[in-house]
Amino acid sequence: MLPLALVASAAEPQAVLTLLEGEATLVSGARAYAAAPGARLGPGTLVETDANASLLRLEWPDGSLLDLGPSTRVMLRPPSEKPTLQGRPLFYLLQGWAKQTQGAAVSGHLSPAFDVPSFKGVLVSQIDGSGAVLFSELGGEQVSGRRSAALLPLRAGQAAVSGSDGSVKILLRPPEGWLARIPRAFRDTLPPQAARFKGPPPALEPRAALSYAALQHWLVAEPELRHDFPTRFAALLSDRAFRAAVTKQLSQHPEWEVVLYPPRPASAAHKSNP
């Protein structure tokens, strides 16, 4: 049993996991842990909910809330080439369902489909293999597609929809039948719970060592997210199966080449070539 606490800067305070209905995994550094209420999660933490997880909630000191549905993958405070005045985006949604209730910091979020620089209100996002939907439950904001710099206004009750080609269009209401698919837990307005977790974080149960298959969705994600992965997960290369998989799939994440085949020191190269 180990405590989980990523080092966070003063500008990027840690989130507190306050609600968990079902099971989820937290990846801190190169270790995986079973999620539990009270855990403190800093920038770069990967949060992955199981298919049986009806709700996982994260809360930040500024009042921001993030609810995750089943089969969902997010990275907290991901790196961004376009940080807002409030710093990095609150999260990156790689897959699944997320409901973001904005706090005082007014931070946006990213996904493979959308860039939400900042907003005030409540947004529900869904990403799956067929595309993405971003629904403004409350408030108004501007969004853009990841393949377009054009900002589009999204007002309360409207939805932004992205297809497989990356194009984005604003609909006056969500696609037919989409609201019925929103996780049931998202329909309730649950009050903040962070006040219940003022003491030390809990000891979390380590899960099995991370495999290539467990990380593959992130290892082949967009380059902006993964540039520090070779350093972060370098220790996993001691596992032959992990090293073999990284080597075999090197074309999908070429940034690992320098770790797999580090350049020879200049002195050694000079000696071998008199």
Quick tags:
274 residues; mainly beta; Jelly Rolls; 16-stranded antiparallel beta sheet; two-stranded antiparallel ribbon; 13% helix; globular; disordered N terminus
Could you please describe the fold and organization of this structure?
The chain is mostly beta strands. The chain has two domains: 2-196, Jelly Rolls; 212-272, no CATH class. It has six helices and 18 strands. The chain has a 16-stranded antiparallel β-sheet that branches. A two-stranded antiparallel sheet has the order 1-18. A hairpin with a 6-residue loop joins strand 14 (131-145) and strand 15 (152-154). It is globular. Residues 1-10 have low confidence and may be disordered.
What does the secondary structure layout of this molecule look like, with pairings?
Layout: E1 2-3, E2 15-21, E3 24-28, E4 31-34, E5 40-41, E6 46-49, E7 55-59, E8 65-68, E9 73-76, E10 91-101, E11 109-110, E12 114-116, E13 119-128, E14 131-145, E15 152-154, E16 159-162, E17 168-171, E18 203-204, H1 212-219, H2 223-226, H3 229-232, H4 240-248, H5 257-260, H6 266-272
Strand content is 25-35%
Average pLDDT rating: 88
The tally of beta strands, per DSSP, is 18
Give the SSE string: EEEEEEEEEEEEEEEEEEHHHHHH
Number of domains: 2
- CATH architecture designation of the largest domain: Sandwich
CATH class of the largest domain: Mainly Beta
Structural class: mainly beta
Helix count, DSSP H or I runs of 4 or more residues: 6
The biggest sheet amounts to: 16 strands, antiparallel
Uncertain spans, ≥5 residues at pLDDT below 50? 1-10
Q: What is the CA-CA span between the terminal residues?
A: 54 Å
As for the CATH topology of the largest domain, it is Jelly Rolls
General shape: globular
Radius of gyration: 20 Å
Helix content: 10-25%
